[in-house]
Write a structure and sequence with these properties.
The chain is α+β, with helices and mostly antiparallel strands. Helix content is about 30%, strand content about 25%.
Length: about 450
């Protein structure tokens, strides 16, 4: 077995035990092996079929269509069925690693020619190698100065460190996949909670089917409706600008020199998930800053994306609830605004689901400008017109959704904790620094 690349070995801060051996990947446990990726997985690149956007539009369906960085569409046919490992073939992300370059997929799906597709005879080997790629530096194998590419010939040269005992491979993969399964479970629960809060908001404040004094849906039970500039609304409700009920605080315009390791961090656009919610991975540590106290945010605060790095405006206008973090101070960056209620009636739960409603997103898109980067006008949030409910209805809604918001925050924080545990274990398990005790060992 030959490799053109020398990969450093000795883990930093790790004292190598005497029962380790020297290999081309450095020091490894004596009962582990170094193998070529092609010795472990079967490559199915020859079965890939790329589809143009027009072709995909004519084939809309339920089956995922994968590219270099995950699902990019859904089509009405599939070319693969089972569990496979996809590895990005090209794209800047191979270097930046902003998103995973390897991911496991299962079921029926289609793959284009921007992602290698591999499979093992047993699924646990695919899972083990999936986790190997989380630690693997692929830069030595990349070609192309402008567009990084991991060609099949270069992919075939990649060396994998793997236990010779299949039971240990299974055990390591299971520990890490169990943690990932729990993370995914929490995310799905959060998605369900989000959907519940949004559905309730639409029913009460768009369809006007909140419960009346008799416990019946207001509008369909004959509740009195009156004319307004936004159409028919419940009697006693009114139309107003959101700016009369909240303050919008601009984020801190920082300098590059301030981005240094610190106990303080900026909350940035990268903290916003495209589909909604908060991501921990987007913090930027900042030191020696001149931000104002009002630009600080704390757990439970509401922030809104005021800029989007793409013209698709995927996160522009999206709200997020800030969870707890390890940082002493969290500060919103210049691409965000903090939304603070002026009174006790407009609560964070009400405002959050108001801004999660498609009506608010559509309003923000209408107030955006920019050719390469989308920006919200300063007047976007203050000038949003909404139907202001009666105090008793908005109070009841806030009471109902407060628990939803708290559960979302708690689960988001638990996801962060689980990710930290997984990442800490991953490197040590995949390098042999931590060994798994097998049940059949005497």
């Amino acid at each position: 077995m030959k490799s053109e690349f020398k990969v450093q070995s000795k883990p930093k801060g790790f004292s190598v035990p005497s029962d380790w051996k020297e290999t081309e990947l450095g020091m490894i446990p004596c009962d582990w092996d170094v193998k070529l990726l092609t010795d472990l997985l079967i490559n199915y690149d020859f079965q890939r079929i790329p589809l143009s956007k027009m072709q995909r539009n004519n084939k809309k369906g339920i089956y995922p269509y994968y590219g270099a960085s995950g699902i990019i569409d859904y089509v009405n046919e599939y070319i693969f069925d089972g569990e496979y490992l996809l590895i990005s073939e090209d794209g800047e992300n191979l270097k930046s690693r902003n998103t995973p370059i390897a991911f496991l997929v299962s079921g029926k799906f289609w793959v284009n020619n921007h992602s290698h597709i591999l499979k093992s005879e047993d699924n646990f080997t695919s899972r083990f190698i999936f986790y190997s790629f989380q630690n693997l530096d692929v830069n030595p194998y990349l070609t192309g100065s402008v567009q990084p590419k991991l060609s099949q010939s270069q992919l075939n040269k990649i060396l994998i460190l793997i236990p010779s005992n299949e039971d240990e491979q299974k055990a390591i993969a299971k520990i890490l996949s169990d943690l990932d399964d729990k993370i995914d479970c929490n995310r799905k629960i959060n998605d369900t909670l989000e959907e519940l809060g949004q559905t309730l908001f639409k029913r009460w404040f768009v369809d006007f089917e909140f419960l009346n004094e008799e416990g019946k849906p207001y509008k369909s039970s004959g509740g009195e409706m009156v004319e307004s500039e936004l159409g028919m609304i419940p009697e006693g409700w009114r139309v107003d600008n959101l700016g009369n009920h909240v303050n919008s605080i601009n984020g801190y315009s920082y300098k590059g020199i301030e981005l240094q390791p610190s106990n303080d961090a900026l909350v940035t656009l990268k903290n916003f998930d495209r589909t909604g919610g908060f991501r921990y991975g987007g913090f930027k540590e900042i030191k020696g800053s001149n931000y104002k106290d009002i630009q600080k945010v704390f757990a439970g605060d509401l922030v809104v994306a005021h800029t989007d790095l793409t013209t698709n405006a995927e996160v522009l206008g999206n709200p997020a609830i800030v969870p707890k973090s390890k940082y002493e101070n969290m500060v919103i960056s210049m691409d965000l605004v903090k939304v603070v209620p002026k009174d006790d009636i407009f609560t964070i739960p009400f405002l959050y689901f108001l801004m999660r409603n498609p009506l608010f997103k559509g309003h923000c898109l209408g107030y955006s400008n920019g050719t390469t980067v989308s920006h919200l006008k300063k007047t976007a949030i203050p000038e949003f017109k909404l139907v202001v409910p009666s105090v008793d209805v908005i109070t009841k809604y806030s009471q109902l959704t407060k628990n939803i918001i708290n559960q979302i925050i708690d689960l988001t924080e638990e996801i962060q904790s689980l990710q930290q545990i997984r990442d800490s274990l991953l490197h040590k398990l995949m390098s042999g620094q931590i060994r798994v005790s097998l049940k059949d060992e005497k």
